[in-house]
Amino acid sequence: MNKLENKDLIIEVKNTGAELSRIYSKTLNKEFLWDGNKKFWGRHSPILFPIVGRLKDNETIIDEKTYSMNQHGFARDFDFSLIEKDQNSLTYKLASNNETKKYYPYKFELFIKYIINETEIKICWKVVNTDCNDIFFSIGAHPAFNVPFDKDTTIDNYYLNFKTRDEVSRYLLQGPFVCKNLKADSLKSIKLHPEIFKNDALIYDNVDEISISSTNSSTSIDVKFDNFPFVGIWSPYNKEDNTIAPFVCIEPWFGIADCLDSNKIFKNKLGVNQLSPNKTFEASYSITIN
Known about the structure:
five-stranded antiparallel β-sheet, mainly beta, Beta-galactosidase, Chain A, domain 5, Aldose epimerase, nine-stranded antiparallel β-sheet
């Protein structure tokens, strides 16, 4: 476990999965990241790589060979190396090896960097193609934020505000797979309540920022991810008592689950990224506590 601290924040990051595991506001004296209680969900903010979501039958075809891979890929379960640390940043690295090639044949280097600046955490991703051929991959974030995050509030006091670009579509799921997409009219704000997660995650494109706010407080969590192709919003739903877990995930993605009619060929996946030999893919998003 490694820690960064400034006058406003403390964050902690695990070597396993290079996973952000704590966001504590010293100013507000509050924990904002889910604690990983396995009763609801045993993770905090996993890195999704080299897939986002689920594959049909948990398998995919790469260069005519079938590979098995569980939901959201393997990077979240591998130990990363801490390769650089200074007062305000931590940088982790995972390189392809004999174990990763059991699931995914490509050679790659994956770098995850955390930077704190006042009340902002910036998370930077870099994927380097060290293979002789083009590689294909998805990558995504999955931070879970404590909701409610203020005392004497309930989920009904909270809402999501959106900043969007162009025309927004919503991607509908049948089970864990994308079945169709529909135009989302005037996506500005959504009131949080358990029923919106009855059919698993809400998934949109062309969204640049989502804020979690409360009608009873001036505190908010802002997640900014300019020009990401997709974002998921999720909390596990309990149909027996019509409740959700005490957290909500805001998940910026470069990738998405398999479509219902997928032919399993990896390079044909919706939202997959293609990277030439010796080239680098870079993206970043930020979390700000206001």
